[in-house]
Design a protein that fits this description.
- The chain has one domain.
- It is α+β, with helices and mostly antiparallel strands and 87 residues long.
- A five-stranded antiparallel β-sheet has the order 2-1-5-4-3, sandwiched between helices.
- It contains two helices and five strands, in the order E-E-H-E-E-E-H.
- It is elongated and about 40 Å long.
Length: 87
C-alpha cells in the first residue's frame, strides 16, 4: 500500500555536507529512499556519471555522494502541513 515518507538525504562533496528533506509517496521506506536519491542526482547510469553503491549514490563521477540519512512514515493527518512547508 502506498504511503508518504519524509526522506532525509545527505549530500556530500569533499568535506562539505548538507541534508535535503523531501516527501515521497512509495510502497516501502526503501523505495522512498531510492526515489529521493534519484531525485537529487544530475548524472545518469546510461552515460556513466551516476553509480549505485551500498552506501547510496555516487554522482557526476564521484563529485557528489548521496545517502539516505533517514526515512520516516508520515501520519496522514500531518501530510498537509508538511506539504505546505516543504513545497
Amino acid at each position: 500500500m502506498m504511503a508518504h515518507y519524509l526522506v532525509k538525504v545527505c549530500v556530500q562533496t569533499g568535506e562539505v555536507s548538507k541534508i535535503i528533506v523531501s516527501i515521497r509517496e512509495a510502497n516501502t521506506p526503501f523505495e522512498a529512499g531510492e526515489m529521493a536519491l534519484l531525485g537529487n542526482c544530475t548524472g545518469s547510469e546510461e552515460d556513466g556519471t551516476m553509480e549505485w553503491l551500498d552506501s547510496g549514490v555516487a554522482d557526476l563521477n564521484w563529485d557528489l555522494h548521496y545517502s539516505v540519512a533517514g526515512c520516516d512514515l508520515i501520519d496522514p493527518a500531518d501530510l498537509p502541513i508538511l506539504q505546505k512547508y516543504l513545497s
